[in-house]
Amino acid sequence: MIDYDSLRRDLEEFLQGAFFAGGFGAALIDLSDVTRATNEELVRIAVRLGFDLDNYKIERGFRR
What we know:
Elements: H1 4-22, H2 26-36, H3 39-48
Helix pairs in contact: 1-2, 1-3
């Protein structure tokens, strides 16, 4: 299971940084996509941008 809220937040921060630091205009388009993306689309965007999804895995605990 993936922590989609954290993934979305990190993608948004990454793309905002890309725009403001480097003037990368396409980042604004991607940022808009991230804001509206479903969880499945978020994963595709993250993979395309080189994010390591292992950093967003939620381990399920077990109950006794």
